[in-house]
């Protein structure tokens, strides 16, 4: 391609303009002008993946690696602040990696993302020498995926590192602990699917760590943190015992694993006086929730997700009693096989609890509402005791996109007859046991399945359900 003259501009302005162009456009400009070529050689942001390089890179894997190789060969390595290499299944890049890293990972880099391979048939061991003295003194964010990383004692401190994310990385627990102890400025730590870690220790030197997420590390048995200023903690798909130590600063807690709600007394940390937002998700629950060992005095937002066949939802009152400042409650209980729990198959007499005052609760939403007697009892309890309640939403669907959603633009999601049956029973239970208990100051919203998209099945269900529709026809 021939060189095209570029208007004379100060070099810093030209570099600035060029740096704002998308990767593909910037690379094309470098091929058309000597001025832009010089600018390309010190471009501060290099994000190398299929999306940024365009569809032409998808034709052949070898072509994709050659494109990356040519890009980096034409770059001086000077001035790179952000380098992202995400290979997405390119299996012929192994012999390029060391050269690419030598060019791009240079002193002054601040953001480094490496996904050397995708799959189980390649294992690239990211060398500790990659984090040389100059790199250690500048790097602020490090993300490693699908590789092996074994930091050694020779690795010095990373004093500016504030964010670390490891996804499917082979690293041992003591190696990670050593790495963390050399990262005193770390603020965010995200670990996912790191299967060789059995004991995660967060050293006390991490006084600035405020966000910790651990997900689907199947071999993890213990999470022990001595970071005193932890603000947010997320645990998903991990059965590890949690030892958070001092959690006075904790404001956001999100935990999801089997039997968590049932074991709330022992699973939830007991000393979180400043907690404001709590999400707990669980499956395989079989009984109810015991009274909690402490009060969440400042908790404002509570979300509970229960994926189970049988549960006493009425026992969740203990969460309300433990949260005197609660403002919003979201309960997700969507299930299919729950016939034995239906209020239509047992005594309609509802359980009562001593009157309580939940003076701050304003919004309640139950997603997947069905005719379980304990769910009806919980709803009636809230209506009676939450004097500040403004809105109550009872969604008998899964909350999936519907045809009246203009952004979705399609028909309602298909549902099998079993779930539609339970949703229909839920709507009848609302009509029979809840509607007349809703104060005039509370806005009740009942979400049902669309009769246009589910006309045939709903008509058949109504014909089958005369046993409970006769008295409570909608």
Descriptive account of the structure:
The chain is α/β, with parallel strands linked by helices and 474 residues long. The strands form two sheets. The chain has a 16-stranded parallel β-sheet that branches. Strand 2, helix 6 and strand 3 form a beta-alpha-beta unit. Helix 5 packs parallel to helix 6 and helix 12 crosses helix 13. The N and C termini lie far apart (72 Å). The mean pLDDT is 81.
Features:
474 residues; alpha/beta; 16-stranded parallel beta sheet; three-stranded parallel beta sheet; 19 strands; 21% strand
Question: Quick recap of the structure?
Answer:
By secondary structure, the chain is α/β, with parallel strands linked by helices. It has helices at residues 11-19, 23-32, 34-40, 50-53, 61-73, 94-104, 133-136, 173-181, 264-267, 317-321, 373-385, 417-434, 455-464, 466-469, and strands at residues 45-48, 82-86, 111-115, 125-126, 141-149, 163-170, 188-192, 199-202, 211-215, 222-225, 232-236, 241-243, 252-256, 277-283, 301-307, 328-332, 363-367, 391-395, 443-447.
């Amino acid at each position: 391609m021939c060189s095209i003259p570029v208007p004379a501009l100060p070099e810093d302005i030209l570099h600035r303009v060029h740096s704002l162009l998308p990767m593909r456009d910037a690379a094309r400009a470098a091929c058309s002008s000597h001025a832009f070529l010089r600018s390309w050689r010190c471009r501060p942001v290099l994000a190398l993946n299929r999306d940024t390089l365009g569809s032409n890179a998808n034709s052949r894997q070898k072509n994709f690696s050659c494109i990356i190789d040519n890009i980096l060969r034409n770059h001086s390595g000077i001035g790179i602040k952000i380098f992202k290499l995400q290979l997405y299944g390119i299996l012929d890049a192994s012999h390029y990696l060391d050269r690419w890293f030598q060019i791009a990972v240079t002193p002054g880099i601040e953001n480094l993302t490496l996904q050397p391979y995708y799959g189980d048939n390649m294992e690239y061991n990211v060398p500790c020498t990659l984090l040389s003295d100059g790199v250690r003194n500048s790097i602020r964010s490090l993300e490693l995926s699908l590789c092996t990383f074994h930091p050694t004692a020779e690795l010095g401190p990373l004093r500016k590192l504030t964010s670390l994310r490891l996804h499917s990385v082979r690293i041992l627990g003591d190696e990670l602990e050593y790495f963390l102890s050399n990262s005193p400025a770390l603020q965010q730590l995200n670990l996912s699917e790191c299967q060789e870690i059995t004991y995660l220790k967060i050293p006390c030197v991490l006084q600035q760590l405020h966000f910790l997420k651990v997900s689907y590390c199947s071999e993890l048995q213990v999470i022990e943190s001595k970071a005193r200023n932890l603000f947010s903690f997320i645990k998903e798909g991990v059965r590890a015992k949690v030892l958070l130590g001092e959690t006075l600063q904790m404001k956001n807690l999100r935990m999801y694993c089997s039997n968590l709600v049932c074991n709330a007394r022992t699973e939830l940390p007991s000393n979180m006086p400043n907690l404001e937002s709590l999400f707990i998700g669980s499956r395989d629950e079989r009984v109810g929730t015991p009274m909690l060992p402490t009060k969440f005095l400042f908790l404002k937002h509570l979300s509970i997700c229960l994926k189970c066949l049988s549960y006493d939802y009425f026992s969740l009152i203990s969460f309300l009693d433990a949260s005197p400042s609660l403002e919003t409650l979201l309960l997700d209980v969507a299930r299919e096989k729950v016939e034995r729990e239906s209020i239509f198959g047992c005594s309609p007499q509802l359980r009562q609890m001593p009157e309580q005052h939940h003076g701050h609760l304003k919004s309640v939403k139950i997603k997947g509402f069905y005719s379980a007697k304990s769910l009806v009892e919980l709803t009636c309890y809230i209506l009676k005791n939450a004097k500040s309640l403004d809105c109550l939403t009872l969604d008998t669907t899964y909350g999936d996109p519907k045809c009246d959603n203009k952004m979705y633009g399609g028909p309602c999601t298909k549902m099998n007859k079993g779930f539609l049956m339970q949703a229909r029973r839920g709507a009848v239970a609302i009509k029979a046991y809840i509607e007349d208990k809703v104060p005039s100051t509370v806005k009740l919203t009942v979400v049902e399945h669309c009769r246009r998209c589910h006309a045939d099945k709903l008509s058949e269900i109504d014909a089958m359900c005369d046993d409970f529709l006769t008295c409570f026809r909608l």
